[in-house]
Amino acid sequence: MAFDGILKNIARHADLTAGEQDLFCSVLQVKNLKKKELLFKPGKICQQEAYINKGCLRTFFCDKNGAQNTFYFGIEDWWISDLLSRTFKVPSQYHVEAIEDAQVFLINDEDLENLMMRIPKLEHFYRKLFQYSVATFEQRLLEAHQLSAEERYRKFRDKYPEFDRRIPQKHIASYLGMTPEFFNTIRSKVLKAH
Q1: Do 97 and 50 meet the contact criterion of CB atoms below 8 Å apart?
Q2: Is 147 found in the same domain as 120?
Q3: What is the SS3 string spanning 111-130?
Q4: What is the reported pTM?
Q5: Distances (CA, A) of 124 to 12, 34, 131
Q6: How far from 136 is each of 9, 30, 39, 45, 140, CA to CA, in Å?
Q7: Could you say which of 47, 68, 79, 90 has the lowest number of CB atoms within 10 Å?
Q8: Which of 62, 28, 30 is nearest to 43 (CA)?
Q9: Residues 124, 129, 134, 136: is their CA dihedral positive or negative?
Q10: CB 41 within 8 A of CB 92
Q11: What is the pLDDT of residues 118-134, one digit of tens each?
Q12: 148-191 tens-digit pLDDT
């Protein structure tokens, strides 16, 4: 099994030796998912971080009426997990579902903690990953309050051009906080303007 992608991802912030790379890869678990299969389920404490090697996933929760609200998308070379559940050791509220057939590399929290103690460069990498995640969430929160629906969609398209092709429109609508009908109106208007 080739772990080139995940090692290149880590190399952006941490220069691991060959031995450190081997040690890191030795604790990874490979999981293949079919489209619509769940990686993580609500009600259980999430104890793993996942690197997306292939495919596209989404994190969503269901509101009291059963409507799905998409919180996050992840594609190749991105990481996905339930940080709230992992940090506070509480049952997850989220579903993490494969939108396409996917392959992920999983690392258990216990293994990750042990590796960060042995390889401090990994702790630096995961701190950078965490900072990026929090900053992205803060930006998304600001945009939700400051931008119109059309502006949010335009920004989404500009930032993630391939998502429009890979992700069902109903999930994008949910992510942007719109009904599918309203999203279709906004999307048609934006596409006509191009």
Answers
A1: no
A2: no
A3: HHHHHHHHCHHHHHHHHHHH
A4: 0.94
A5: 11, 33, 11
A6: 18, 27, 22, 24, 6
A7: 90
A8: 62
A9: positive
A10: yes
A11: 999 999 999 999 999 99
A12: 999 999 999 999 999 988 999 999 999 999 999 999 999 999 98
Q: Which two tokens stand for residue 150?
A: 């059309």
Residue with tokens 């965490």: 130
Give the position of tokens 């279709």.
184
**Domain ranges, residue 183:** 139-194
Number of domains in the chain: 2
Q: 112: left (phi > 0), else alpha (psi -120 to 50), else beta?
A: alpha
HEC profile for 27-72? CCEEEEECCCCEEECCCCCCCEEEEEEECCEEEEEECCCCCEEEEE
| Residue 27 maps to a domain | yes
